Amino acid sequence: xxxxxxxxxxxxxxxxxxxxxxxxxVDPVTSVPVTVTVDAFEIGKTEVTQAEYQxxxxxxxxxxxxxxxxxxxxxxxxxxxxxxxxxxxxRGFEACYELPSGRRRHACNGYRLPTEAEWSYxxxxxxAGSREGANLGLPSVKDASxxxxxxxxxxxxxxxxxxxxxxxxxDDWFSSDQSPWPLRNPRGALRGLERVIRGGSFxxxxxxxxxxxxxxxxxxxxxxxxxFRLARSLGxxxxxxxxxxxxxxxxxxxxDGRLETLAxxxxxxxxxxxxxxxGKRPMVIVPYYDVxxxxxxxxxxxxxxxxxxLWFARQAAQAGYLAVAVRWYxxxxxxxYDEAVANLENKVTGMDRWxxxxxxxxxxxxxxxxxxxxxIAMFGHSLGGKMTMYAMAADPRxxxxxxxxxxxxxxxxxxxxxWYLGEAKAKVLDHHALMQKxxxxxxxxxxxxxxTAASKAYLKxxxxxxxxxxxxxxxxxxxxxxxDWVRRKLH
Length: 491
What we know:
The chain has helices spanning 4-10, 50-57, 77-90, 116-124, 292-295, 312-318, 337-342, 350-365, 383-394, 423-426, 431-438, 476-490, and strands at 15-18, 21-26, 33-38, 41-44, 111-112, 167-173, 195-198, 214-217, 226-227, 231-233, 249-250, 256-262, 266-272, 281-288, 322-327, 371-381, 400-404, 443-447, 463-467. By secondary structure, it is an alpha/beta fold.
């Protein structure tokens, strides 16, 4: 027992600091180029040792005990979170984890487990040769008996110590979908069954099967092959305010979803991919046939489209914005579009009904405490693009707009259909006047098939366009350009 005491003085974890960094990557799910930012953080140079763990928690659960310089293992994810909280309190920082739920307050200056994005960034900057010198298992997977003598060894800060020895718990829930989420400080899925572990252990083979050294583990499971290191956000002074209330949960690993029905049967889905983000944030409204496609989830509507580049509400939530997907009245006002039109009261047109619905949606989102009323945008494709133009022209509270191939010239598409304006009104449409009502607010047209060079003549002050000419649906790289434009305008 006495040999551990002096080691505590020597083996207090050292940390390596990394400045904030930004990079552009291609989202592997949507193929859309996205800009990912990780704020400044520090991460332990080694795994937490048995000496450190015993000094704070008064126990050593490790299966491979030795002197205090061996990594602690045989700890659950929650054990690691409790240790992080205890160390935070001891050193005068905030405790980041709510116990027993395990939910983390993301704007927290205390110790926590690293996100997978932080862990990966630290690995990229580990000393050259650290992988070769790591305590990683055998070069062959043919002789199982050779695994048994392998064991942990003392931590090694000098060589980076990111690979081997023990697998390391990360903060993130595991998902095989490695789409960065959210785009600022990615932390993976909001929910899951297992947590990410990285780095491999002393028994992980060195074969091509383990190139990624990425796996997962039930957070309630303690294993002699898994330990942890700590991380801490830099530049954080206080935690966030409370979390949104729910009316009805929509289960998703990627965002908190709340389904609501407003007056007149207007169906909306509120999305928040960063529910702990502090302060007032931009809101992106995405009108479409139903809420399913903008959210990237088949929720049982009539018209879900598994086309990732059209999942605008999901993309907005991923970028850290608030988002609301809105169902078009034609999907809810009757058995089909024809019946929905027949059910309209007072002989209003379909566009009249949509403008009234859009005003109600803006009224609703402005009652949310975390919405910035000066940064409300609308992003719509095709039908949703038409809805965006008319809503913006009628409601100055919508300050920014992106439309994808709506067909601005009246003759370019089907404005005469009775679920829009009807033939008589379509004959006298003046979209020059409509676009003038939108000006000078920022407005971006993604021109593809219905919109051609002729559409440019309708653009007024504040409007820009990207003429991709690659069909009706925008290709992923053009959607990426549109989100870059949104980011520049909303920040």
